[in-house]
Design a protein that fits this description.
Layout (H helix, E strand, L loop, with lengths): L1 E6 L2 E4 L4 E9 L6 E7 L6 E6 L6 E3 L7 E6 L4 E6 L8 E8 L16 E2 L3 E6 L1
Length: about 130
């Protein structure tokens, strides 16, 4: 079992930055690849970014590419989402998730590929 807890959300003006954190406890964190998703009111959950188990591979959705970056610190059992140049359309609840798919090295962009989820943190971007 893996427990994930997100933090770092809040209210920010358009053009600003936030860094989300996701702390993991339980089974070996470094065996999982990690992903970030978001869900805005009335919309489906949307993939945002992915990082492989050792941090050597990254992938971001087109909507955030060049603005959002995933990173991780396996010694701290924590994954991060650095969000820059935020836009009002980035407003959503952000979730981190852990995937055992492909031993943590295969790209996982769909919710079905993830085994564990955090409770989410709200990000609101004002115009």
């Amino acid at each position: 079992q893996v427990k994930l807890v997100e933090s770092g959300g809040g209210l920010v003006q358009a053009g600003g930055s936030l860094r989300l954190s996701c702390a993991a406890s339980g089974r070996a964190f470094s065996s999982f690849s990690m992903g970030w998703f978001r869900q805005a009111p009335g919309k489906e959950r949307e993939f945002v970014g992915w990082i492989s188990r050792n941090g050597g591979k990254l992938y971001s959705a087109d909507s955030v590419n060049g603005r959002f970056t995933c990173s991780r610190d396996n010694a701290k059992n924590t994954v991060y989402l650095q969000m820059n140049s935020l836009k009002p359309e980035d407003t959503a609840v952000y979730f981190c998730a852990a995937s055992a798919s492909g031993s943590g090295v295969v790209l996982a962009t769909t919710a079905a590929q993830y085994n564990y989820w955090g409770q989410g943190t709200q990000v609101t971007v004002s115009s």
